[in-house]
Structures are given as structure tokens and as C-alpha cells.
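Input sequence (284 aa), recorded before submission:
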Amino acid sequence: MSPSSTFRHTLIALGLVLASQAPAHAAHWSLVETGVAFDLLDQSGSVDGRSAGLTTLGSLQDLSVPGQRTLFDSQASGVQSLGGASLDQGYSHLVSVDTQSGSATTDIQLSASQYWNVAATTDATVSGFSLTQDLALGGLRLLIVGDAGEAAGTRVRVSFSGSADALFGGLTGQGEIGLSLDVSRGTQSLASHDSLWTTDGSQQINLSFEAVVGDELTLTFAAHQQLTQGGPVQLGSGQALNIDRSGLLQGQLAVAAVPEPQGLAMVLGGLAVLGGLVRRRAKV
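Predicted structure, C-alpha cell format:
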């Protein structure tokens, strides 16, 4: 057998050994507790001294299916006359946690939005607008399940990759939007995110920590909006004031293998052998 052929066979054998000696431990998510949700919207304002608003509490509809927690509610009041203007108002709430039927990735989304839009038909004065909006889900528990009989206690890495976004319309510089996410094990917080916005913005979220197969992780996430109008806004005929705000938290919670120490040692040793073979061949 030629030196060249021997070298190729050695590389193939080495690759097979490394592949067999460095297995990846795989795991997936299982939804074991759907948690408790809270939703609130309270908004109102006046046009030419006439008030109108919208209030809702605990109105989320449960659209969940096995492996997925989905809660949704929305309302549109339709256009109504108010003083020297027409008013259109409404809101939307969405909470979704989807384990994708036992996937290694769980999709998470929390969205809270509202609008209170005034279109003046004659000269009009908008005043006294106030808004409180809250949407939260707490106590949702996900179990890390090992694939192919992976034993409890096998190390894994959990990561969250996503974004927090806030949009503000009308009454510039007034009000705030807060978005938060926490992942805990028992009473220990493992990773969290908190952001507070007073203008349009977007922030990437990247969290990571180690866990083990058999861990139950608790998710809590929330959106909060608060606004109290300062001075009145004067509108001429044909002008509009659109007060619309939204907060969105979304991303993916993933569980992945952590290479075992002996597997890493084997890979490093194999690379050293490969380096030596390359040097020896270069001298031939």
C-alpha cells in the first residue's frame, strides 16, 4: 500500500473513532404547567369635554392545545361621534408558548397593543387621556426531557434568542412601555431581561445558562403600558390624533447538548494525532 493510501485510510479511521467517542446528548421541551395569565386594559379620554373609553379585565380566550399555551383577546369599538370629532378605539392581547410537539426549541410571544384615534370634523380639543395596559403570564413550567433515554442529570445548555420592541404613536414623549422575561428553577432566577421604553425602540435579547435533563424551568413574562396626557391637544377640522402603542416580546427558548469532558479530550487528542500525521507526510 502506498504512503498516500495509508494516510487516507488513517484519516478515515480517525474520523470514525472521533465520531463514535464524542456523542451529543439531545433533549427537548415538555409543557407540564400552563401557568396563570393576567390582562388589563383601561383607557379613556375626552373630546370637547365628552368622555369615552374602554375597560377590560380577565378577558383572554384560551386557545391552547397539547404542548402549546395560547391566549388571545381583541376588541374594536367601531367609529363613534364624540364632540367635534369621530373616535375609533380598540386593543389586542396575545400570549403564546409553543413547544412544537416536543422540539428542542420553544417559541415564545407576548404582544400588547391599543389604539384611541380621534379625527376632528370641526375644531376640537382632546384632553385627559389616560392608559393602563398589562399583560402577563406566570408560573408556566417546561420540563427538559432527554432524548433516546438520556439520564436525568445530563448537562444541557439553555438559551433564549429574541427581541423586545416598543412602538409609540401620538402624544410624543409621554408614557412608557415595559417588557420583561424571567426563567427560573425553583426560587433561583437563571436568566432575565427587563427593558423600559419612552420612545420607539428595539433590543436584541440573548440569554444563556446551563441546566440538566430533568430540570423544570418556570417562565414569567409581562408587558406594561402607562400614559397620562399632559396638556390638551387642539385639532383643526380634518386633523387627527392617533394614540396607538404596542409592546412585543418574542423569541425562541432552545435546549442543546453540552459536550462531555471525555468527548472533548478525545477530539483534542485526535487533532493532535492528525497534526502529527500531516507533518510526517510533509517530510516524505
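Checked by second reader. Residues 23-283 form one domain.
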